[in-house]
Amino acid sequence: MREIQEFSLDDLRHLVSPRALTGETMVLNMGPQHPSTHGVLRLIVELDGEIVVNCIPDVGYLHTGIEKNMEGKTYQKAEVMTDRIDYMYTMGNNLVYCLAVEKLTGLKSPPRADAIRVILAELSRIQSHLLWIGTSALDLAAMSVFLYAMREREMIMDVFELVSGQRMMTTFIRPGGLWRDVPSEFEAAVREIVRVFPKRIAEYEALLTKNPLFLDRTRGIGKIDTMTCKAWDVTGPTLRATGLAHDVRKANPYCGFEQYDFDIPTQTTGDVYARYLVRVEEMRQSVRIVEQALNKLPYGSVRDNNRKYVPPPRSEIGMSMEALIHHFKLWTEGFSPPVGSVYATVESPRGEMGVFLESDGSPKPYRVHYRTPSVPLLQVLPILSKGHYVADLVGIIGSIDIVLGDTDR
Amino acid sequence: MGIEQKTGNTGVVTTTLEQAVNWSRTNSMWPMLFGLACCAIEMMGAQAANYDMSRFGMELMRASPRQSDLMIVAGRVSQKMAPVLRNLYDQMPDPKWVIAMGDCAACGGVFNNYAILQGVDEIVPVDVYISGCPPRPEGLINGVITLHKKVSGEKFAKWK
Amino acid sequence: MNELLSSAIKALGEKFGGQVSEFRDEVTLLIPPDKVTAAATVLRDEFTFDMLSAETAVDYCPQTNPRFHMVYIFYSTTLKVYLTFRAHVNGDDPKIATMETVYPSANWREREIWDLFGIRFEGHSDMRRLLMPPNWEGHPLRKDYPLGYEEVQYSFNFDEIDVRKPKGVR
């Protein structure tokens, strides 16, 4: 086993203030095992009394080698890895990978598959925001929100389990459509969520939005402006909380998001409280999208008919020799897309999530790179936390909603 | 449970010391709050109202290894994290147990590569392995109950 | 294609000798490596590409000159389009000028590329490894770096593999 590698103050000379070298300020370690760093994040915090002078994030404690592993698998098999990148937005990880593969191969997912993708991706977003509201309120010592949020999360998990048999790592969205059509109970289960959810969001808001303790801990804390966000490539609710209504779903629509009527919530203050308000409103908008998609859920196939890329349905295999050959070829050798590279993006609960996919014409991706929103978010943490108390640092980490699997991949 | 005999209504319970100790250990086991990756989300799910792990005396998650006696390794352990994990294990007071939750902690799972430790049992002794990627909260609860069974059968002679 | 985007492509092509290629409606400019920072500055200041959406590298291993391609994907929040730059990086002494001076967000991305590909960025303010431990040897995402997996043991070859398997501290 390796030894723990400690930084010396000398290694960090260019990052800490000169006062740290004389011992005037204190350099402390926080994490990687810490209850409120949301995973295995390590921070090296320079403190002047209780004030954060500087903080240096040290990531990589969850580096999984997913990009390297995907290079060794066929396009279909590599998709299984993608679930585990941002494990709070699993459906979206599949979706962005499938969008990239579809762009590369020229596949087109049918309208029904698109609508179901939208429903599942939005439910996944709500699920992620629920976990965020639960855990970040927990960091600010509000316990009951966590219990309420987890209760609603189970409803969404039940829908995922209903369609795919798995609660989190579903791999339900596949290149060219979906794994299979949703069962008949799907619609009723989603309707139930749409029905109860707005009331439940009001419950969380009743606990937090006007709570004086919560306001004191969040207002004016961790401020950032639009220019800094753009320069540091920060997207998602953190960017929208500064006033810029940028959302990939509106700017570069995918899966037919342009047909749905929804708003992009924005705030102008750019602090922790603004990010909280944006996310809560986003949950409401997601429910709206789910409802609209459910109302006009079209009938038809859920997979592209190009048999060179999409495996034939089970029923066809017994009837046609060609289907059997395609099935065999696709699951042993895989498909070979044309040479080239593409970049596809979706809006994840944390910001823009993109996948850069390069093909060399073989059945395995030559290079896959996930552009994940948590990396820039963590990168601006020193800017956000400068001059605040250590106790507020915890609230700021909660408010940017990082997922370490997303940062480290 | 450790109660062997109850003598009428005198209020006296007789048992062996071994059973009394094991009983108290199983029913007040403090797990360490040690979420690494995806499985940590399901661990949180098991803590929350729907599954409610506190029914088994497991609700008190401690953030400090010095206050806990069960380490639930929830998620994949990278090469960078491995020495930290061992360090935390060494800091826990005896007696201590380890649950490897999920495929990644048990055997590396789908990640058979340079970055991930192929099973946490390479660095710490594991008592219970839970399969699943991630396991359902029921799976975690089942693992905990399995551990309780194991602990309640422990012998004085084998204590370290 | 957007007017401003096509004028940007034309201007960059003329000024910096960028070769334009198009695949699936995505425009890629191959820019000489010593002019990437200058081209990005023009792109940011004159053509409203205010975000560096992604920065990564691709390794074309047996080939040595150029062995790597640097890939920069820019995004404009006003035009709502992406534009890709590529630059060749030599395999013998892989290095290129840092993008950090133009887009600060390149800081960690370049640390990640140094970590996983071993491409040095000249003028970078903090050239440490990002993801792997500081004393790690090699650069994992290079094509000549092995995946480093552990052999799977089956009942017929369990003992044979067990002998050569690395053992941890127990």
Describe the structure.
Chain A is mainly alpha-helical and 409 residues long. Chain A contains 18 helices and eight strands. Chain A has a domain of 229 residues: Orthogonal Bundle (Cytochrome-c3 Hydrogenase, chain B), CATH 1.10.645. In chain A, helix 5 runs antiparallel to helix 6 and helix 5 packs antiparallel against helix 17. The relative contact order of chain A is 0.18. With 170 residues, chain C is α/β, with parallel strands linked by helices. Chain C has a single domain, classed as NADH:ubiquinone oxidoreductase Nqo5 subunit (Beta Polymerase, domain 2, 2-Layer Sandwich), CATH 3.30.460. Chains in contact: A-B, A-C, B-C. Chains A and C meet through helix 2, strand 6, strand 7, strand 8 and helix 15 of A and strand 3 and helix 3 of C.
Summarize the structure.
The complex is a heterotrimer of chains A (409), B (160) and C (170). Helix content of chain A is 48%, strand content 11%.
How are the SSEs placed, and which strands pair?
The complex is a heterotrimer of chains A (409), B (160) and C (170).
Chain A: H1 18-21, E1 26-30, E2 42-48, E3 51-58, H2 66-71, H3 75-82, H4 90-105, H5 111-139, H6 143-164, E4 173-174, E5 177-178, H7 186-208, H8 212-218, H9 226-231, H10 237-240, H11 248-251, H12 272-295, H13 314-317, H14 321-332, E6 340-348, E7 351-359, E8 367-371, H15 374-379, H16 381-385, H17 390-400, H18 404-408
Helix pairs in contact in A: 3-4, 4-5, 5-6, 5-12, 5-17, 6-7, 7-12, 12-17
Chain B: E1 5-6, E2 13-14, H1 17-27, E3 31-32, H2 38-47, E4 70-74, H3 82-91, E5 97-101, H4 102-107, E6 128-130, H5 137-152
Parallel strand pairs in B: 3-4, 4-5, 5-6
Antiparallel strand pairs in B: 1-2
Helix pairs in contact in B: 1-5, 2-5
Chain C: H1 3-16, E1 19-23, E2 26-30, H2 36-46, E3 51-59, E4 68-76, E5 81-89, E6 95-97, H3 106-117, E7 120-122, H4 158-164
Parallel strand pairs in C: 2-5, 6-7
Antiparallel strand pairs in C: 1-2, 3-4, 4-5
Helix pairs in contact in C: 1-2
